[in-house]
């Protein structure tokens, strides 16, 4: 019989508060709908402000929580420093993200309060993903997150591009969910276990010689690996990412690009390094292949792009390749590099989307969002501070010192060299040099390309400018205290 103690509720205090607040916001939005017509700005402004306040309180709750290492809800969820660190980061970045899209929603007249409700539900799902300690909890949390993403991708019902993005994401996402469920079924049918702790003990000492069931187990783990790699858009399971990024509205694309991978990477670490460490050791070559393909496809795919969102999508695939390369070492040095990389990537993604959302052109009396890379030609003449911020972000993404992107790539490469994966390290360095070309090409457009016609940019809103200033300050000065992030990651790995 399921025994529920006060610790079970205490450990999920943040999630319980968020779910209750979301239900209250939903009821509040329905009541306001009776006073105003559907899609009225008053409803959106109220719900967006209250959602931001809810995220602030949630962040305060998780930071002030003193939860010891424990498993709750019959060992379905685990609460340790890894889940604490990931949850804190998710809520902090979610708060900053919510602030940068206020102006976009206002200018695009996205006045549907349901957008904030679905986004908040997706954030709750990420919190559950980060603390999943059972295959069933993992599956339910991922599906909870995916359903919210399907709705967000097709949220703009008047746009055929948004509808196409949502439909394509749903079809491919359902296929990956089927693979995930099949892998879980094979593992449970073979072992009779679903808990991560029980599975880690069961697989202890597993080799090719002493396990007659090893083939079925391998197949189940590979299916789960494929499903998780699909969710983080690692090649060759990346096909949905550029189309969904391009078809969805920019505020939804920023949500997809900044937040979900953080929770999923922590889940991959827990699954690979704790749950099925012995089995994954025998499947190391699959991680190396996915890392190699992600870096190659992401790097050369980004070279051919002319639109901002597809460019960011392929750049993300390349970064995911470095994260998977860190995991491919199957050592804690590599895991440290991968988790450090995802934290830096999340901060950099927040900065790049803050800038992209600021690229709004003025065509009196209307405005429109900039779609093509060539639109930033001679940006330094119109807004030198914005151009300088973009240069710093691009340098960090390219891995140029002293920006944090350099340290993130260096940690992954050092772990590859330590584990004698010299070939993969050399290819990663070579592809990083190629990626510098398309990042520097954007800088060349801003500073050294002259044109007779220059686009006029709409003034940046104060909230977006403030968030961009905070992220840029962190990116530029974080090398002075890089040990703060490294110590934070070390605590997540070993506590």
From TrEMBL:
Signal peptide: none annotated. It comes from the Eukaryota. Residues 132-435 form the NADH:quinone oxidoreductase/Mrp antiporter transmembrane domain. The keyword DNA-binding does not apply. Its main location: membrane. It is found in: Membrane. Keywords: Membrane, Mitochondrion, Transmembrane, Transmembrane helix. This is NADH dehydrogenase subunit 2. It comes from Pyropia fucicola. The lineage of its organism: Eukaryota, Rhodophyta, Bangiophyceae, Bangiales, Bangiaceae. The gene is nad2.
